[in-house]
């Protein structure tokens, strides 16, 4: 009986409390709904836009906040691993900051062969200036490339030789070997400027640093007694060692890019048939050894490719009566008449060094060489043919390079 009496009194109280607590919320919801409906039907809804802060530190983008040391490190990695000069230059022209930091000495000092491999058709004053900046930064590879270009292409003998000497002082093997070839031939001077002993010493230093052509040249010098006391057995040992290094270099380079089966597809080990393989192929070069293996031809150095392209564009050597080395991977021109040796059998091809003759003999000249009764361009200074693909200097009584 009492519960029925209390019910009417409690019920109105609960309604009053709920109305009081929910009334502001309901009012706000109604206002928002009405505003939304009005904006929708009016066709002009208000959108909130992001307004960036007005402080200068927040306005600058994140790229500008990166430290210079980090960007220099990134550009140094790029210059050391770029596959061509255009890859590196494309990064420099991205923005002004990259252009400034890309010319930093730490970046240019790390530039690799491929980054510095400028084509002769793209040669310009800016390309010359880029190589000069790399030289000033202490890049040894740039010293050698620019030295070869100046010595042989631009005919600036003194500057080119000094740049190659600067690279040789830093134990750059190709520079040491190139200086040896210059000493053997007396390039840039007369016949009396030859220094065979200095050439042998430079070859020995380059061979010690792992230069295969220098080791092969040194072996021929020992076999022939050219600039050094003759030692046939020691020279033959150096030639076999050069062949083994050549094969090891090719195998190690292809192992990273080819599978085992693909790497073995071009290796043939029949010593009786390797001389009958296709000669003159652009993809294969018979190994200069008794192993009977054919390996892909080694890629020419960017300096050699530049010289070959430079004189091909200009239609030949830099002067009348001058010749280019017949080995396609060399590119060196004569600096005076009859500087290079020519084949003692056919008298047609000529080479700057014994190493180039040995390479070209196995590559293509062995199939093309044939004795001639009268040498072309014979001016009374011909050599005596040895019937074995040898090369004889036209300015000396007899200077034969035997086949390896």
The beta-strand count equals 5
Helix content: 40-55%
Number of continuous helical runs: 16
Order the strands across the largest sheet as they lie in space: 4-3-5
Multimeric organization: single chain
Termini gap: 129 Å
Order of helices and strands: HHHHHHHHHHHHHHEEHEEHE
**What is the 3D shape?**
globular
Beta-strand proportion = under 5%
CA radius of gyration is 37 Å
Class of secondary structure makeup:
mainly alpha
Low-confidence stretches: 1-22, 36-44, 260-264, 269-284, 288-292, 378-388, 393-404
Largest sheet: 3 strands, antiparallel
- How would you state the average pLDDT, rounded? 76
GO molecular function: zinc ion binding
Biased composition (Gly residues): 381-390
Domain MYND-type: 327-369
Keywords: Metal-binding, Zinc, Zinc-finger
Structure description:
The protein is mainly alpha-helical and 404 residues long. Helix content is 52%, strand content 3%. The protein has helices at residues 2-42, 56-59, 68-81, 85-92, 96-102, 105-108, 125-136, 140-153, 157-169, 173-185, 196-208, 212-224, 232-255, 260-264, 302-313, 354-368; strands spanning 285-286, 294-295, 341-343, 350-351, 391-393. The strands form two sheets. Strands 4-3-5 form a three-stranded antiparallel sheet. The longest helix is centred in the first third of the chain and has 41 residues, at 2-42.
């Amino acid at each position: 009986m009492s519960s029925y009496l209390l019910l009417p009194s409690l019920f109105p109280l609960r309604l009053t409390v709920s109305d009081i607590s929910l009334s502001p919320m309901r009012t706000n919801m109604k206002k928002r709904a009405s505003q939304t409906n009005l904006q929708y039907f009016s066709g002009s809804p208000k959108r909130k836009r992001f307004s960036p802060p007005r402080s200068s530190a927040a306005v600058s983008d994140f790229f500008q906040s990166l430290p210079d040391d980090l960007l220099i490190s990134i550009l140094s990695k790029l210059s050391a691993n770029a596959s061509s000069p255009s890859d590196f230059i494309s990064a420099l022209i991205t923005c002004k900051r990259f252009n400034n930091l890309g010319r930093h000495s730490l970046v240019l000092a790390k530039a690799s062969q491929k980054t510095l491999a400028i084509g002769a058709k793209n040669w310009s004053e800016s390309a010359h200036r880029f190589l000069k900046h790399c030289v000033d930064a202490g890049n040894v590879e740039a010293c050698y490339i620019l030295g070869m270009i100046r010595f042989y292409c631009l005919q600036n003998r003194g500057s080119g030789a000094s740049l190659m000497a600067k690279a040789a002082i830093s134990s750059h093997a190709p520079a040491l070997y190139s200086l040896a070839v210059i000493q053997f031939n007396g390039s840039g001077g007369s016949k009396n400027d030859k220094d065979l002993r200095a050439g042998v010493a430079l070859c020995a230093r380059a061979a010690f640093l792992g230069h295969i052509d220098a080791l092969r040249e040194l072996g021929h010098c020992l076999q022939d007694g050219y600039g050094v006391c003759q030692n046939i057995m020691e020279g033959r040992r150096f030639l076999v060692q050069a062949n083994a290094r050549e094969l090891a270099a090719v195998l190690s380079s292809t192992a990273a890019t080819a599978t085992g089966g693909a790497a073995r597809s071009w290796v043939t080990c029949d010593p009786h048939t390797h001389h009958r393989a296709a000669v003159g192929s652009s993809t294969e070069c018979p190994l200069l050894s008794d192993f009977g293996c054919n390996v892909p031809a080694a890629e020419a150095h960017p300096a050699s490719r530049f010289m070959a392209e430079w004189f091909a564009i200009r239609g030949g050597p830099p002067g009348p009566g001058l010749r280019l080395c017949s080995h396609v991977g060399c590119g060196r021109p004569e600096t005076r008449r009859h500087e290079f040796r020519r084949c003692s059998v056919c008298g047609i091809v000529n080479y700057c060094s014994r190493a180039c003759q040995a390479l070209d003999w196995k590559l293509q000249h062995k199939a093309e060489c044939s004795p001639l009764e009268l040498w072309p361009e014979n001016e009374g200074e011909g050599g005596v043919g040895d019937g074995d693909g040898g090369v004889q200097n036209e300015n000396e009584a007899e200077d034969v390079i035997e086949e390896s």
